[in-house]
Structure formats: C-alpha cells, structure tokens
Amino acid sequence: MTRQVVLDTETTGLNAKLGDRIIEIGCVEILSRRVADRQFHAYLNPERDVDLGATRVHGLTLEDLRAKPKFADVAKEFLDFIAGAEVLIHNADFDTEFLDLELGRARLGRFQDHVANVVDTLAFARELHPGRKNSLDALCERYFVNHANRTLHGALLDARLLAECYLAMTRGQESLVMELETPAQAAAAAALLQVDLSHLIMLPALPEEVALHEQYLDAMEKEAKRPSLWRKLAA
Description:
Blueprint: E1 4-11, E2 22-31, E3 34-43, H1 52-58, H2 62-65, H3 71-82, E4 86-89, H4 92-105, E5 117-120, H5 121-128, H6 136-142, H7 155-169, H8 176-179, H9 183-193, H10 207-224, H11 229-234
Parallel strand pairs: 1-4, 4-5
Antiparallel strand pairs: 1-2, 2-3
C-alpha cells in the first residue's frame, strides 16, 4: 500500500497570491491504518507580518516566529518526509497553493512533483455527508474524536485529529472479528452473531436512507478501488 501522510499548515493570512506565507507545517504518518509516531513539525519565519484575523485563529504573531527557520531551511527535511506518499489534506487546494509558492521560491518544483497523489479529505467528507457540516471540528464530533484541546488551530494537532477522522471515515470495510485482540474475544463476538433474532421487529429503510447508503458505498468503493463486501453479499 502507498504510504500515507496527513498534512496541515497555518499561514499569515488567506491569500497566497497577495504574499501570505506559511508559518507552521505539521505532518503525521499513517501506517497499517494506525497513526504512527513519526512526524514532521516546523514553525517558520514568514518574513512578513501576520494578519490579526489569522492570529485569532492560531494564536501566532511575527514576534513568536522571528527566531524560527525560514521555509528554505527546512524544505529538504520536509520533502524527505512526504516523498512518494499519498498526502491527505483538508481543503487541499488551500494548502497546496501555499506549498507550491514556497517550493517555487526555493526552486524545488511543485508539491505534486514530490508525492504520489493528494487526497482532499474535505471533498471526501462532503461525498460521505452531503448537506452537512464537514469542518474538522464537525468531523471530530461526528466520529467521536476527542478535540477538547483544540482551542486554537495548530498544524500538528490538526493533522493528528484529521488522521483519526480519516481512519474513522474509511473504516466501513473492516471486520469486527478481525479487529478483536484475543481468540476469546473473537469467540464471544461469533457467539453473538448466532443469537436468535426472530423476535425483533424489522423496519425497512426509507428511500432517502437507501439513497444515502448507496452514496456512502459509492464513496467507499472509490476510495478502496474495489467493490464493497456489502454489495457482493447483496448480489
């Protein structure tokens, strides 16, 4: 499987074309569907003021960043970390525009030149949950990912939270019994599957529920690049 890296940035403002710069990069690695210990994290001197509105989001000012390295100083370590990976980014166009400009200033090509591909987890979440909020906070609440410490945005913290949310969003085809840690737990789960359920009242799904379920399966199969077990059994 392609190695996966979850990436987030914080910036001086919202407009890269008008000179806003990256001030923080956070990356975490996903291995065998688990958030690994290996990470990349750097605060950066943007060589310009930080917009007040941006400071309200992440809490960082130029005074906090003056002594930090410039992007070019950490670029090689950063590129080594993401090299050849599938990179997961929430609202990917925003971050990759900033990264492309920073890499361009350092004459290191474009972001896409260094990675296998980029997955926009915001677009993926919108496919799974059309018409609902799909911000990182909303996903944390929906998938019971603890984000109590997220009083301010931070690239490394947000990358870790996004990694947990992504694993939850793509967990649909994992087997309950396969995830159990011991044979005794697996046996107990198997016994539950043999309980007599004939007395239960079965309520058919509403048409709109069926449609949402089919959208979920479509998104899951697109991500997995193979048919879902549910549809195989239904066939």
